[in-house]
Amino acid sequence: MNFTHFPKIELHLHLDCSLSYKVVQQLDPSISPETYQESFIAPPKCIDLADYIRRAIKGVELMQTEQQLRLVTLDLFEQLQADHVIYAEIRFAPLQHLKQGLNPRQVVQIVNDAVEQGIRATGIEAGIILCTLRHYSQQQSLETVHLVEEFKGSRVVGFDIAADEAGFPIGAHIAAFDYAKEKGIACTAHAGEAKGAESVWETLHHFHPSRIGHGVRSAENPALLEFLKHKGIHLEVCPTSNIQTNVYPSITSHTVDTLYKTGISLSINTDARTISDTTLAQEYELLHKIFSWQESHFLQCNLYAIEAAFTTEAVKSRLREKMYAGILSAKQQ
Asked: Where does the Adenosine deaminase domain lie (predicted)?
């Protein structure tokens, strides 16, 4: 089964972790293929999540000017088009891109405009999720969520918290998520990756997101699984990334198949296309090979993703039509 032409939805995708060698060469011609491999791509096994995240540093360094941000965003659209993605939510932390004089509002505007350009060029539907980071202060988290509110009606569609969940508690970010809830801002939150089921429980209790980034360790707690299913909380699962960050020793021990069989809403995502050196087609191939997933599994996951997407019902309806038409087309390839 060849999944290259299968239509795909991607909800969990970090912009600063997905720079192709092509765009890195444009931004800094001195970076050799060897340096790119070493600095931008993680090994099959990292020490932990913090070790994995270190591979994003070089990408962020190359995303500090208007031109750099625009080129990186458009490069990602090229990657998505090659992977037959029909809808993507692209996330990044705007406060990481201020080192050469841009202010946070300018950063968001630049990426928003580039996403608009990418949509026009490729026909891919897309939204932007703004991230706060675990090590940020309460003020930085509030500043980020205020940007989501300010850009309401643009391509900015939601709010997230990312980075090292095991290293930093949630206290500094409760105010920002309370604000998001008050303003009706769509939220997702990284949890159940570097920490176990208790991380998902506290995230749900304090942040009230409709989606969980990763969330795979929810499988450790039957009561939590029941809660997720009952509340319709969507899990953004990123299999290869979870193996690299040592959540699981190997793909055969990953919980994705177990989670799917419970009937929980989940999607398959790359997380970081460059750091994990993967595409959605490769993720699908992996699950097909290891867990014997078929077309029906991936269709269901993509339908779950459409339902959980931070977009309008009109767009969701259009995406479902594209999904079924794309599957028919893929069968004829």
From this structure: 7-324
φ, ψ of residue 121 to 5 degrees: the values are -75, -30
Alpha carbon distance 74, 313 (integer Å): 26
Tokens of residue 157, six digits:
């569609």
CA distances from 244 to 58, 64, 172, 185 (A): 19, 27, 28, 32
C-alpha closest to that of 235 among 276, 202, 264, 205: 264
Residues marked as catalytic: 193
**Beta bridge mates, 125:** 87
At the topology level, CATH places domain 8-331 in TIM Barrel (3.20.20)
* Strand boundaries in the chain, DSSP class E: 8-14, 85-92, 125-133, 156-162, 188-191, 211-214, 234-237, 266-268
Crossing angle of the two packed helices 66-82 and 104-122, in degrees rounded to 10: 30
Tens-place pLDDT, residues 73-106? 999 999 999 999 999 999 999 999 999 999 999 9
Handedness of CA 56, 57, 58, 64 (dihedral sign): positive
The torsion defined by the Cα of 104, 40, 288 and 310, in degrees rounded to 10, comes to 0
Sequence-distant (6+) residues with CB within 8 A of 13 are 76, 88, 89, 90, 91, 269, 270, 271, 272, 273
